[in-house]
């Protein structure tokens, strides 16, 4: 990018090294490593209002190739005696740069270095990234802007800065995909993290037994005092819920700055309550259900899975890649008798509580969230809600508030459970009874699991406003 600027008696001039080829013998090599070079004004033909081309593009090899053109355009004679040795006659007093005070939001046009001083040879204190908002507090005549950075003031080349919000695609998560899989989710999470760095934090919270990442995306302020957690696809064949949670994440990111629910802005909501979304708690199981044994990377795991069922069709698989039903593997009420005695069979609870990597990851992460107020677990199918895990007292009344809200939003039917019904190592049992946090289990879709993708629109509509509705309830509950 080349732009014309007028230079009138400014103290420092920024040039590309392309422009300064003839100086290369007298400029220390470390200064040449940076792209922007400060030169005392008397060493450039800078008479008042002299217009020269100033290029400030970092890493632009094209401009190196054009250096001869630049030299001509800029009217800088190749053998200008003044330019041969810029350290000579450097007697003019260096004035303090002047910054016009502002307070506005800026973005960078490309990934840009941020410095301690208005000088590229000063200490680099970080990198300003694309799509991230920064607060600008000063515009310098020296080609640098002052921005708030890491709790202090830092300097960035003005030419890399724009006040225009960069446009972002709004169709990252493919809702038409009939088999939304692990790789697609991973790619989409990475993209959402790039496009919405101010509003979402994506991290891996651990690995599965077949070495896949278990991701959490935190929508909103990670330092909020209150948090909610939503997880899906703990059961392999219930992967339509991954697509649901990913679509919800993108939906609220798109509307983060301008959207409202019941008159409250999403911005305020997600600043006060962070929403942790684990879109695929059992990535190996989902992959197995979608792609069969071909999806399993570890040969030993694949061999042992082969022995767990006669059929090579794993579409109806529920467990993880070790044949354990994760929703029977949590510690509260865990019993071997919860289901089958054989790996791979329906409801097999594992050799002991929390025997599985995926269970451990979820337990550790859930416990790590300070101020966790509510947990939603997405399963399929039946359009029903489980909510009664034998809790009592205040926890029971809070659970009722939550489940009534979830019922009103989704229209799903509450499952009548006896408060004496025995828990059996489920995640919600664990969250409610062990951690004392209200939790509900929603079962989306009807007829068959994997739920036919033709139901996605219906499921989406039923669950669209669950997030802001629950967040608002958490805000109002003091
Ligand atoms: Zn399930």
TrEMBL record:
Q: Which residues form the Peptidase M14 domain?
A: 178-463
Tell me one GO molecular function of this protein.
metallocarboxypeptidase activity
Q: Which InterPro entries match?
A: ENP1_M14_CPD (IPR034274), Peptidase_M14 (IPR000834)
Using the UniProt annotation, give all residue ranges assigned to the region (Disordered): 56-91
**According to the lineage, what is the superkingdom?**
Bacteria
Q: State the Gene3D superfamilies in the record.
A: Zn peptidases (3.40.630.10)
- Show the active-site residues: 443 (proton donor/acceptor)
The terms describing its cellular component in GO are:
extracellular space
Q: Name one GO biological process term.
A: proteolysis
Composition bias, Low complexity = 67-83
Signal sequence, renumbered to the chain: 1-31
Q: Could you list this entry's UniProt keywords, alphabetically sorted.
A: Carboxypeptidase, Hydrolase, Metalloprotease, Protease, Signal, Zinc
Cofactors named for this entry: Zn(2+)
What family is this?
Answer: Belongs to the peptidase M14 family.
User: Which protein are we looking at?
Assistant: Zinc carboxypeptidase
């Amino acid at each position: 990018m080349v732009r014309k600027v007028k230079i009138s008696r400014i103290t420092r001039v920024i040039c590309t090294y392309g422009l300064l080829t003839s100086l290369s013998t007298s400029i220390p090599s470390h200064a040449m490593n940076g792209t922007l070079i400060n030169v005392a004004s008397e060493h450039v033909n800078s008479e008042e209002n002299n217009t020269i081309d100033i290029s400030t593009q970092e890493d632009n090899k094209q401009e190196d190739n054009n250096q001869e053109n630049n030299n001509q355009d800029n009217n800088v004679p190749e053998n200008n005696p003044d330019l041969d040795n810029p350290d000579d006659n450097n007697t003019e007093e260096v004035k303090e740069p002047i910054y016009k005070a502002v307070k506005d939001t800026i973005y960078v046009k490309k990934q840009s270095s941020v410095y301690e001083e208005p000088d590229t040879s000063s200490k680099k204190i970080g990198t300003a990234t694309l799509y991230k908002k920064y607060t600008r507090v000063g515009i310098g005549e020296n080609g640098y802007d002052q921005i708030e950075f890491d709790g202090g003031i830092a300097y960035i080349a003005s030419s890399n800065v724009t006040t225009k919000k960069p446009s972002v695609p709004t169709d990252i998560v493919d809702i038409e995909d009939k088999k939304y899989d692990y790789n697609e989710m991973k790619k989409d999470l990475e993209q959402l993290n790039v496009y919405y760095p101010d509003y979402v934090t994506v991290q891996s919270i651990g690995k599965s037994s077949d070495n896949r990442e278990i991701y959490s995306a935190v929508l909103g302020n990670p330092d909020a005092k209150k948090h909610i957690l939503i997880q899906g696809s703990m059961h392999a064949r219930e992967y339509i819920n991954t697509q649901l949670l990913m679509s919800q994440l993108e939906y609220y990111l798109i509307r983060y700055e301008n959207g409202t629910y019941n008159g409250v802005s999403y911005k305020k909501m997600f600043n006060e309550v962070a929403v942790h979304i684990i879109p695929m708690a059992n990535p190996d199981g989902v992959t197995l259900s979608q792609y069969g044994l071909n999806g399993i990377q570890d040969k030993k795991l694949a061999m042992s899975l082969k022995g767990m069922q006669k059929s090579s069709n794993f579409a109806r698989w529920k467990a993880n890649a070790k044949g354990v039903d994760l929703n029977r593997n949590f510690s509260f009420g865990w019993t071997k008798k919860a289901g089958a005695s054989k790996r791979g069979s329906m409801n097999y609870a594992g050799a002991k509580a929390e025997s599985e990597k995926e269970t451990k990851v979820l337990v550790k992460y859930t416990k790590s969230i300070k101020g966790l107020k509510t947990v939603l677990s997405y399963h399929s199918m039946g359009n029903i809600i489980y909510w009664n895990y034998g809790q009592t007292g205040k926890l029971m009344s809070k659970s009722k508030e939550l489940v009534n809200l979830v019922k009103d939003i989704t229209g799903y039917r509450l499952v009548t459970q006896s408060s004496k019904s025995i828990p059996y190592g489920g995640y919600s049992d664990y969250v409610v009874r062990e951690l004392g946090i209200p939790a509900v289990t929603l079962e989306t879709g009807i007829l068959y699991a994997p739920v036919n993708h033709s139901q996605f629109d219906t499921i989406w509509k039923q669950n669209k406003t669950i997030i802001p509705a629950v967040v608002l309830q958490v805000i109002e509950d003091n």
